[in-house]
């Protein structure tokens, strides 16, 4: 199926949501029966999150992705494999506040987002100060943000933005995470883009922060 056909079909899939109202209904129906709610921003094809979801049926997972042809892959795969504990939001990740109630997310994963290096795009970076404030409101007490990138400037920018906030606790900073990756758990699994970056010799950086 071509890109145009995927764009036409994606929003009609039963596990894909394009409006906050419809998503909140699905969230309220599923979340009370799950131990955690785990969200990935800019989830791409959703492959990484799908594997996490299959390993943990007791959790609820949400993939957020603006590109319809990408999210189509994950949503179709979830339907084919009957993976019922994952939902997909087809929308800009900057609108996440419209979709989730306050203190409703346990883990927020941001993996290899667009660096948006130009100064005029600074506020649209996923780890800009205004975005971190929004995430803080959406995270449950002790909720975590797990951030990975291969862009040193974006990594340092994020650390500087965190200095403006006293309500996040830094749990881990690793500028050579590609050398220190664990053998098991979600951090052990490579994303599609992470695999590509490593094949090109780029270094992966990891930051984990907790709502305090």
Name of the CATH architecture:
3-Layer(aba) Sandwich
* Strand ordering within the main sheet: 1-4-3-2-5-6-8-7
CATH topology name, in short, is Rossmann fold
Largest sheet: 8 strands, mixed
SSE arrangement, N to C: HEHEHEHEHEHEHEHHE
- Please give the alpha-carbon distance between the first and last residues: 46 Å
Roughly how much helix do the residues carry, as a percent range?
25-40%
CATH class membership? Alpha Beta
Present the secondary structure layout.
Blueprint: H1 3-10, E1 16-17, H2 20-30, E2 37-41, H3 47-55, E3 60-65, H4 68-80, E4 86-90, H5 96-99, E5 105-111, H6 129-138, E6 139-149, H7 152-162, E7 168-174, H8 177-180, H9 192-199, E8 205-211
Parallel strand pairs: 1-4, 2-3, 2-5, 3-4, 5-6
Antiparallel strand pairs: 6-8, 7-8
Task: Please give a structural write-up.
The chain has 212 residues and is of the alpha/beta class. The chain has one domain: 3-Layer(aba) Sandwich (Rossmann fold). Helix content is 37%, strand content 24%. It is built from nine helices and eight strands. It has helices spanning 3-10, 20-30, 47-55, 68-80, 96-99, 129-138, 152-162, 177-180, 192-199, and strands spanning 16-17, 37-41, 60-65, 86-90, 105-111, 139-149, 168-174, 205-211. The chain has an eight-stranded mixed beta sheet, with helices on both faces. Helix 4 links the parallel strand 3 and strand 4 (86-90). Helix 1 (3-10) crosses helix 4. The chain is globular, with a radius of gyration of 17 Å.
